[in-house]
Amino acid sequence: MNGYMKNQNGSTGIVTELFVCILATSFVLLWCDNAFSWMPSIQHDLTGQKKKYRCELSDALFVMNSEVGTVMMCDVTNTLTTRPLAPIGKTEDWYAAASNDTVSIQNDSPDVEKEYQEEMEFTLQGMVELENFIHAAQDQEPDEANKKNELRNRLKLRVGFENLYLLMVNNVYVNSSIVHDPAEDYHYSEETSVARNLRISSRDGEATFNELYCNYTSGRFRIRIGNQLYAWGTADAFNPTSYFNPYDARELLLKDDDEFKAGVPSLSALVFLDNYSLELVYVPVHIPMILPATQSFWYIDFGAIPFSVDIEETDGLELAPGNSGYGARFTGTVSGIDFSLSGYHGPDREAVLMPYRTVLTPNEPISLRVAQRHYIINMIGFDLSSSFDKFVIQCEAAYSPDKRGLVEPEDTSTITLPFQVASSSFISYAAGFNYFVPLSRILKGHEGETVFTFEWSQSRYFDDKIASPLISDIIICRIEDSYFSGRVPISITAIIGTRERGYIFWPKLGYDFQNGLTIEIAYVNIIGSGKDDSPFDYSIFNSYRDKDIFMWSIRYVY
């Protein structure tokens, strides 16, 4: 069934068993990693203490320096590089493009380079998290308020050599009954399925492999094959030039940064050219955007449509050479400004949600059937980033001459099905900055790093007859800080809709025991302007205006 295998029986068991197996395997592998001291490693004496460095990029060894908030990269040519931490949501590739300052260091052994290239490396990192969502609405029973009791295990495994290795990042989720039975309207999918990128979904559980690839590096050339995430673009939240990875929109914007996008099976090649690089990507199969299941807690409300909405699940465009995607990105640095130019041809990562017929079921209300339509588009884009004193300024934009959208009729008082779809020129852009606030000048002895983030994004069709995108005209403001030697991280996020006059207010408070254990509480307040006057004017703020959530989580990193 176009890349899906479906099974109606045992929807919970398959993911639950997989969760238990992976969790048990994680601890066994972790024990092995610590128990066998003969496993190869490289150590350099940088600060009077021995530290182990693990390879996280093709030609580099990384270690986190929590005291100064930087990443130190030691390559096999005895060069130590200090760099600022990557922005939220960026992957290791971000470091490869960052500016750096270098100093020389001395190796403990002159044979380090030879030893490292010849010996196999094994690294394992993991995280277990229990996350709970409680609906804050007043007109409901206490049992109905508890929506999500999710147990998550994240495992990152790497095995191989410096230039040839296999990387896997796996997440297993179970909507468990440890705290309370999960709500009937909170589930991952309608039925058990295995997607083209190996995402295994059922009603009460899921397993993902957003990164599962083989990496080979030789000199200035790197090639990867498998499920990959591409950190194209410089914006912190919405990246117009991130063409390949579709959004996972099942929890609005509340997913962690490493969960917000789905990996795609692909082949990529990266060529390093001194201060420049060129990346080529080919995606042979289409992976669609992940939307909330029908009548789930986060389902999309189409505003003025007086029916319940049933959005059909899809496995994407059919397997055909014409439905594959490919793109290229050229990056470099000129006069202290990082830039990139990119192009793409392939399936649009955003679906057109097209209502096309009504469904009448005996003894049930009339429902409106909505199809996810995907189309082939062409896009070109650029992004810029530069640092000025305590500011990091970034912007990016993408243009398409043939993006599809719903045509809004002149008379919106009546609904005619199916809705019409048309092609138009389209532009999407985002701009913002990160400001590293010198709070220590005001609060004596303040050790945390205070960062204020601002970003504005907008998307527009050139044809005024086409309805505006679901997510557009958004301002995001965020302040992040930490206190008591980093034990108490805090953040306050405001997401403001300038078009629909809505906002999301999201404060968050945590406590880090600094032994791998972290607890966190948060509250999400969503305000919309009310019901939309037209089905073409629906927005995320109006769709979720009564979905205020209290969140708490317990996380352990191993």
Description:
This protein has 558 residues and is mainly beta. The chain contains five helices and 30 strands. A hairpin with a 4-residue loop joins strand 5 and strand 6. The longest helix has 23 residues. The chain starts with 5 loop residues before the first strand and ends with a strand. The N terminus is likely disordered.
Task: Flag low-confidence runs.
Answer: 1-20, 26-110, 112-116
Query: What fraction of the residues are assigned to beta strands by DSSP?
Result: over 45%
Number of strands: 30
Round the Cα radius of gyration to an integer and report it. Answer: 24 Å
The number of helical segments is 5
Ends distance: 39 Å
Structural class: mainly beta
- Helix share of residues? under 10%
Largest sheet: 18 strands, antiparallel, barrel
Mean pLDDT: 79
In short:
The chain has 558 residues and is mostly beta strands. The protein has helices at 13-35, 93-97, 112-118, 142-145, 540-543; strands at residues 6-7, 42-45, 50-57, 60-65, 70-74, 79-84, 101-104, 121-135, 146-160, 164-175, 192-194, 200-201, 205-218, 221-228, 264-273, 276-283, 308-311, 325-334, 337-347, 352-359, 367-373, 376-388, 391-406, 421-437, 450-461, 474-483, 488-497, 502-512, 517-527, 549-557. The protein is globular.
List the helices and strands and how they pair.
Layout: E1 6-7, H1 13-35, E2 42-45, E3 50-57, E4 60-65, E5 70-74, E6 79-84, H2 93-97, E7 101-104, H3 112-118, E8 121-135, H4 142-145, E9 146-160, E10 164-175, E11 192-194, E12 200-201, E13 205-218, E14 221-228, E15 264-273, E16 276-283, E17 308-311, E18 325-334, E19 337-347, E20 352-359, E21 367-373, E22 376-388, E23 391-406, E24 421-437, E25 450-461, E26 474-483, E27 488-497, E28 502-512, E29 517-527, H5 540-543, E30 549-557
Parallel strand pairs: 17-21
Antiparallel strand pairs: 1-11, 2-3, 3-4, 4-5, 5-6, 6-7, 8-9, 8-30, 9-10, 10-13, 11-12, 12-13, 13-14, 14-15, 15-16, 16-18, 18-19, 19-22, 20-21, 22-23, 23-24, 24-25, 25-26, 26-27, 27-28, 28-29, 29-30
